Amino acid sequence: MNQYFIIKGGQPLSGDIDVYGSKNAATPIIAATLLTKESSIIDNIPLIEDVFTMIKILESLGAKITWIDKRKIKIDPSHINVDKIDQKLVKKLRSSVLLISPLCHHSRSFQLSQPGGCLIGARPIDDHIDALGEFGLRVKRSFESYEFYYEKLTPKNVVLNQFSVTATENLLMLASCLSGKTTIKIAAKEPHVLDLVSFLIKMGAKIKSLPDHIFEIEGVKNLHGVKYHKIIPDPIEAATFLIIGIVCRGKITVNNVRIDHLDLVLQKLKAFGAKFEIIPQNTKEHLFKIKTYPALQLEAVAKIQALPYPGIPTDIQSMFGVLATQANGTTMIQDPLYEGRLKYIDELIRMGANAIIADPHRALIMGPTPLYGQEINSFDLRTGACLIGASLLAKGQTKISNIYQVDRGYERIEQRLQKINANIRRVEE
């Protein structure tokens, strides 16, 4: 079934929109439930394709999944069989790489297909293999799969080759179950990584977050189930909706925001001249509302660079690209992490943006320029979100194809945008 979005831009936006649970926190936490044979309960699950795929992978392994309510699940991993994993599902999901460490807990040898995900450039799992190899995990590679095996796993002091979120998460999970001390240097500390740490600590893990991007883990013999864990609200989703409100000069309220996860994003938005108000919502859970107001004039920021946390997330730089098309002056967009992250620029140019892709990691956007509706394509998850934002401000009608990519990370985004008066509909053919 082919699905696409039809969007008529220029509609004034107003109303409330809620932020749901973090996709990037949900998949590693679901994987981590396999580190014990006891059940765990996870709340605030985002109802998106990537999460459903991870759950199906666990079910193929033999885990029993019980939906307690709409966003709360109980995972019983007491009867796991690594040989029964559905490799076709593994191929669909980049986050399936997070199963390496949990499966080590169940077997000395297992096989995983090459993980799938967004086509945003080269995303090898070499960092995982190199780091886990320090512990004694070995791998045989083929064109389509990896065969992992070990005789004994031993805690080590590891220096990662780069700030890799998923490699950090794999190491945290493995080290938590190994008796002895592990130190991880050049560790990623994104909010969703720290949410995984919180979950592992509830399982009985002993993890210290130290300065200079270091984790120290004192492994324990047995982890246990978690009676309750609530996934953090998605900072990427919050920033997406916030920038849509700003770029469309709408009066919208974004609910369930952890502003401490968006420090630099909010700072850069202020530098663009965006008008918004931050209002306390739930002090116990550190949640805020952010109200947007139309700005008379947006001014270009010299450079937006995607960096590891607390920098601007690579997942949100494309939204800043859309914002830059409406700002007075020139903005450089730089993403050193993935060479495919700037492909959305070509789609913005088709819509009328004045932009130049200097190289795979840098682009210049000159604004302000009006955007016009076109037939465009969502190459990946975040491209899809930014093109929705561009289409909502564009003149005329836009058709966005390949929206499966958007569904992987945003739960029924068209229904939620309709609630703030966006003219967007899903079409099936």
Note the main sheet.
Answer: 4 strands, mixed
The CATH homologous superfamily of the largest domain is named: Enolpyruvate transferase domain
Spatial shape: globular
Structural class: alpha+beta
Task: Kindly estimate the percentage of residues that lie in beta strands according to DSSP.
Answer: 25-35%
Radius of gyration (CA) equals 22 Å
Strands side by side in the biggest sheet? 21-22-1-23
CATH topology of the largest domain: UDP-n-acetylglucosamine1-carboxyvinyl-transferase, Chain
Low-confidence stretches: 118-123
Average of pLDDT: 94
Helix segment tally: 14
Q: Estimate the helix proportion, in percent.
A: 25-40%
Strand element count: 23
What's the number of structural domains? 2
What is the CATH domain class of the largest domain? Answer: Alpha Beta
Second CATH tier, the architecture of the largest domain: Alpha-beta prism
Please report the distance between the alpha carbons of the first and last residues: 6 Å
Question: Which descriptors apply to this entry?
Answer:
four-stranded mixed sheet; UDP-n-acetylglucosamine1-carboxyvinyl-transferase, Chain; 429 residues; alpha+beta
Give an account of the 3D structure.
The protein is α+β, with helices and mostly antiparallel strands. It folds into two domains: 3-20 and 233-428, Enolpyruvate transferase domain (UDP-n-acetylglucosamine1-carboxyvinyl-transferase, Chain, Alpha-beta prism); 23-230, Alpha-beta prism (UDP-n-acetylglucosamine1-carboxyvinyl-transferase, Chain). 30% of the residues lie in helices and 28% in strands. It has 14 helices and 23 strands. A four-stranded mixed beta sheet has the order 21-22-1-23. Strands 2-14-16-15 form a four-stranded mixed beta sheet, with helices on one face. Strands 4-5-3-13 form a four-stranded mixed beta sheet, covered by helices on one side. The radius of gyration is 22 Å and the shape is globular. It starts with a strand and ends with a strand.
